[in-house]
Amino acid sequence: MKKTMTGHKAVAEAMRQIEPDVVAVYPITPQSEIAEYYAQYVADGIVHTELVPVESEHSAMSACVGAAAAGARVMTATASQGLALMIEIVYIAASMRLPIVMALANRALSGPINIHCDHSDAYLARDAGVVHIFAESAQEAYDWMIMAQRIAEHERVHLPVVVNLDGFTLTHSVQVVEPLPDEQVKEFVGEFKPMYPLLDVDNPSTWGPFAMPDYYFELKRAQAAAMEEVPAVFLEVQRAYRELSGRNYGGFFEGYRLEDAERAIVVMGSTAGTAKVVVDELRAKGEKVGLLKVWLWRPFPKEEIVKALSHVSKVAVLDRAFSFGGMGALYLDVTSAFVHQDQRPQFVNYIYGLGGRDTTTEQLAQVFGELKTAQPGELRYIGLRE
Amino acid sequence: MPELKTWKELPIGGVIPGGATPELNKTGSWRSQRPVWDSEKCIHCLQCWLHCPDDSILIVDQKVTGIDYEHCKGCGVCAGVCPVDAIEMVPERGEG
Amino acid sequence: MPSIKVLAQREEAQVRFTAGHSLCAGCAEPMIVRTVLNAIEDPVVVANATGCLEVATSRYPTSAWNVPWIHSAFENAAATIAGVEAAYKALKRIGKIKKRIRFVAFGGDGGTYDIGLQALSGALERGHDFLYVVLNNEAYMNTGVQRSSATPRCASATTSPAGKAIPGKPQDRKDLTEIVAAHHVPYVAQASVSHLIDLANKVERAMSYEGPKLINVLSTCPLGWRTRRDSAISMAKLAVDTCYWPLYEVVEGVYKVNYKPKEKLPIEEWLKPQGRFRHLFKSEDGKKLIAELQAAVDRHWEELLRKERCTQEA
Predict the structure, then answer these.
(1) CA-to-CA distance for A61 and C118, rounded, in angstroms?
(2) Do C67 and A58 touch (CB under 8 A)?
């Protein structure tokens, strides 16, 4: 049944239906309402979850680590500075192979302090060893939270998964979401089977060791191997969800009118929605344009990206954060995928939408226009007063 | 320490399953002096056992039976707390 | 009250903390850990902050822990154990776990007084059911004897060294035990490695309460304090006998001083054997500082006795 709800409600609903054992969470705009909704579920006794209202995000992720290692199913949410504060523990959680699912309400990193959307927080956690998925809409945020639980807990994966949803744009706007029935979600995520749980006191294990140069490298290589398992598991879980929900999820990204496109935009998050409108408008005028909307950002599906974009002449890769001193992170991901290919597009990098700056249909149409004459390898901006 | 394992052989997440591994770190090699226990003088008060940092005072049915020389680091605390001087620290090798 | 025989019996049945770790010969920390773990009857899960204990007992692929044990970072032992405890509560609630399991966190003074204070305070305020044991050796020992807020005034530490212009740490140490008491937790105490049976009794008493408990244990570091290798017990005993480190409990707000020395030794007895205070014995200024340190010890001791009188009257 279709309902109207904000992005955070959608995330909180998914969490309620998954019903984790522990949620350790600290408020920060624009995520706070996720915690608030969940706290109300707990206060009303409709979930068995132990809610831990910690005193900082660093403690939120630390408590999540303790709870997950103990053998509980654990979820949390944060944004921006909160992610930055907890980042050392995010790396640690990944190294400990803990399947914590975290909603990240994408918000700009300070300074200056800004509470609105951009992807600098996600970019900070790019190399943490967590799986990154981006949602275009509240519906996608809801769906991805549920799929994330199964991807995270898959026995070949066992990694934290971050579901990125644009702060304010998705978290606070009211959209149409069609949730699944409670029992279907429960059945889809199944039982959590922890590995070496601390609470199994008859079989003690030692978590979080000290590793010298003789072992650190091997331990990290083993961790990387888990990331290598993600793409196949991602597709498997996605297929199962597609069957269950009827919603059209297929692949690591969504190609929109891309098959015969001459010019394309690559983007993550809610701006993809705007871009789809622009693609349709330009197509109606006979322009062969298309869109590639990334779902799975880490691990980066470079082979499939190459297959999807090889035929395109000119590609604008949109980054919603600076990677100061270099090209945008998504741009680097996409272009490096092509580095040894004979057939490759010309690429331009656009930085856009920082600190909640809106990106309009006119501006995206302009990007498609600029692609015709832009210098390859250029770094440009959308909507910046220059 | 045993032979170093390859990455494929390592349990998940850096976890060391199965509890303690005292046999993998035989710290007795650290010693420059060793405790010698006099079973005649000993009154089995267990002060040495209580204080040993390396769990190297061997006991059976709460009575001292000897020293775990594979792990004892020779700190001398046991000799210091013994109320009846039943433990003497002597040089590990050669003259004192 | 667990007697030494009871502790021994328990360890014979299950060695929770074994030999085969790389802590220094004569280190007080493993003495404390063994006693704490043997003083708890129920199964235990341990969280450990980064520090000497953690590093020396978990060098991959070795471990000295026969209890479930987790280290994640330096400043979050309390938050980590809070998560474990929350998981236990949740799983117990839905019948997935039936046993009674207890939760213990070990942290050094660095990981507790300083960088870990926030996580500790939060866990105390939220009322998690756990025991936090501070292994207080009065500096960041594992990284090379840098000063912490537990380092006593005038101690020479590597980031507050005794030099020509400044005679060691200028500040008084923080009173963590009182900070924890101010959180109104059911049980907080000070203990010492020199009085392990007293420590065992305190652990047992603490564990008879639900909720957050903390025991701040003075833990001699012969290396960092520059004393003899075998001096862990004798040094800590001097700390107690000079009333520098009183043994006391605050049980539901009521103070109880466990040990009042018949003969209170002058603070000099505590300072003299330690290389970290050696500079105080080399000058007239040093003599003055010793007198100030004595006055401070006396003041704190009197204050503690007053708190005892006043809370016991009520």
Answers:
(1) 14
(2) no
Q: How far is B54 from chain A (nearest CA, A)?
A: 19
CA distance A304 to A232: 12
Q: How far is B86 from chain C (nearest CA, A)?
A: 16
Q: Tell the burial category of A270 from Cβ atoms under 10 Å away from its Cβ (0-12, 13-18, 19+).
A: buried
Q: Which residues, 6+ apart, have CB-to-CB distance to A329 below 8 Å? A: A123, A126, A319, A321, A323
A231-289 pLDDT, tens digit each? 999 999 999 999 999 999 999 999 999 999 999 999 999 999 999 999 999 999 999 99
* Chain C residues within an 8 Å CB radius of A46: none
Residues of chain B found within 8 Å of residue A97, distances taken between Cβ atoms? 12-13
Assigned token pair, C268:
């000099």
Tell how strand B63-67 and strand B87-91 pair up.
unpaired
For chain B, domains (ranges, CATH) are 40-96 (3.30.70.20)
B19 and C66 within 8 Å at the Cβ level: the answer is: yes
Does this model's pTM top 0.95? My answer is yes
Structural domains present in chain C: 4-313 (3.40.50.970)
The pLDDT of residue B95 is 56
Q: Which residues contact residue C275 at a Cβ distance below 8 angstroms, ignoring those fewer than 6 apart? A: C156, C225, C226, C227
- Domains of chain A are 3-194+210-245 (3.40.50.970), 253-381 (3.40.50.920)
Question: What Rg do the C-alpha atoms of chain C give, in angstroms?
Answer: 19
What was the ipTM of the complex prediction?
0.97
φ, ψ for residue C106 (rounded to 5)?
-115, 130
Q: Is the pLDDT of residue C108 over 60?
A: yes
Ramachandran area for residue C255 (φ above 0: left; ψ -120 to 50: alpha; else beta): beta
DSSP state of C140: B
- Whether A208 and C58 lie within 8 Å, measured CB to CB: yes
Q: Which of C19, C44, C77, C93 is nearest to C206 (CA)?
A: C44
Q: Are strands C248-251 and C254-257 parallel, antiparallel or unpaired?
A: antiparallel
